[in-house]
Design a protein that fits this description.
Blueprint: E1 4-11, H1 17-25, E2 33-37, E3 49-52, E4 57-60, E5 65-68, H2 73-85, E6 94-98, H3 105-114, H4 116-119, E7 122-132, H5 136-142, H6 144-151, E8 155-159, H7 166-179, E9 184-187, E10 218-225, H8 231-245, E11 249-256, E12 266-271, E13 274-275, E14 279-280, E15 291-298, H9 299-302, H10 305-324
Parallel strand pairs: 1-6, 1-7, 2-5, 2-6, 7-8, 8-9
Antiparallel strand pairs: 3-4, 4-5, 10-15, 11-12, 11-15, 12-13, 12-14
């Protein structure tokens, strides 16, 4: 049975997560979506609730389900999947998890990637983070968890842009793009809901050439290669990043043109030392076949990433030459 795609919606307190979620649920692509909210009593969806299914699951408009997490998230996700398989719940096709505003997204990512009873039933499709245009800059300065939420995401949605000056929004957009060059930075006022779904099969955002506002605690390093890369080299690079950066490695995301299968790109996702099962796409999402790897890490260790990758590539090339050398 195919695994259920999971969209993780994160963002600091008051940044507009629930407002965004309500908006996404109205889109036809969100039909048959299960929603998990991991803070009891703070659902913010009351005007959408139309039918109580049991004491933990509520049926929403469009056949969506909402579940308030009252215990372990692993138990909640497994319970939803088991009841879905048994026909006790509608056959939802997606899962959206709205996190607490103070939640460390790495902990939730680990549940999806590393817990066998969860990863066997679900796969991480994408991470969406909301950032308040009015308070976002100060929040990023004051709260490390807010910076991590922004650094780990695939989509950065700037909310409340109508309440902030245009130059404030532009400065925040630049800072977020520098913090996470692999993420699309989107104005909530001009949001296209289609960009929030099936993220794993889309190309990475274009990395901006220069940003003057780098977060002093977190850095993103973008590595691009025009030539196809052998699978063995990709494996060695991932292993080297894990071994040398350890907990300072926040996230790895990439799309790779493999030497063994250049027409079928490999999508990579990892959180700290946890590598999501690589996904091979049937075709490239665009005409660009350049390999791109974005590594987000603490600033202390980020400086070593490019040299580490280049060292692995040289060693791999040397090994390949030795293998083909005639006796």
């Amino acid at each position: 049975m195919a695994r259920i795609p999971v969209s993780l919606i994160t963002g600091f307190l008051g940044s507009g997560k629930t407002t965004l979620l309500n908006r996404l649920l109205k889109d036809q692509r969100a039909a048959h979506t299960a929603v998990v909210v991991n803070e009891f009593g703070a659902i913010g969806l009351d005007h959408h609730l139309i039918e109580q299914a049991d004491d933990t699951v509520v049926l929403l408009e469009g056949g969506c389900l909402c579940c308030q997490v009252r215990g372990n998230l692993v138990d909640t996700l497994v319970d939803l999947a088991v009841r879905r398989a048994a026909g006790k719940l509608p056959p939802f096709r997606r899962l959206a998890i709205e996190t607490s505003g103070l939640a460390d997204p790495k902990a939730l990512i680990k549940v999806i990637l590393a817990e066998p009873v969860v990863s066997g039933r679900y796969h991480l499709d994408g991470i969406i983070a909301t950032v308040d245009a009015v308070n976002g800059w100060a929040t990023l300065d004051a709260h490390p968890v807010a910076a991590e939420q922004a650094a780990l995401t695939d989509r950065l949605v700037i909310t409340k842009t109508d309440l902030a000056a245009p130059d404030t929004v532009a400065a925040l957009r630049g800072r977020l793009a520098g913090l996470n060059p692999a993420a699309l930075v989107i104005d909530a006022a001009r949001l296209d809901p289609s960009l929030m779904f099936d993220i794993i099969g889309r190309p990475l955002a274009d990395a901006a050439e220069d940003h003057h506002h780098h977060d002093p605690r977190i850095r993103a390093v973008t590595i691009t290669r025009d030539q196809p890369i052998p699978q063995a080299t990709v494996d060695r690079i991932l292993a080297a990043l894990e071994q040398n950066l350890g907990p300072d490695l926040l996230r790895v995301k990439g799309i790779v043109c493999l030497a063994e299968a250049p027409d079928r790109p490999l999508v990579l996702q990892a959180a700290q030392t946890l590598l999501h099962d690589p996904i091979t796409l049937d075709r490239w999402p665009s005409a660009d076949r350049q390999s791109r790897l974005v590594v987000i890490a603490t600033a202390e260790k980020a400086a070593m990433i490019e040299e580490l990758v280049e060292t692995i590539e040289r060693l791999s090339a040397k090994t390949a030459r030795l293998r083909v050398r005639p006796p």
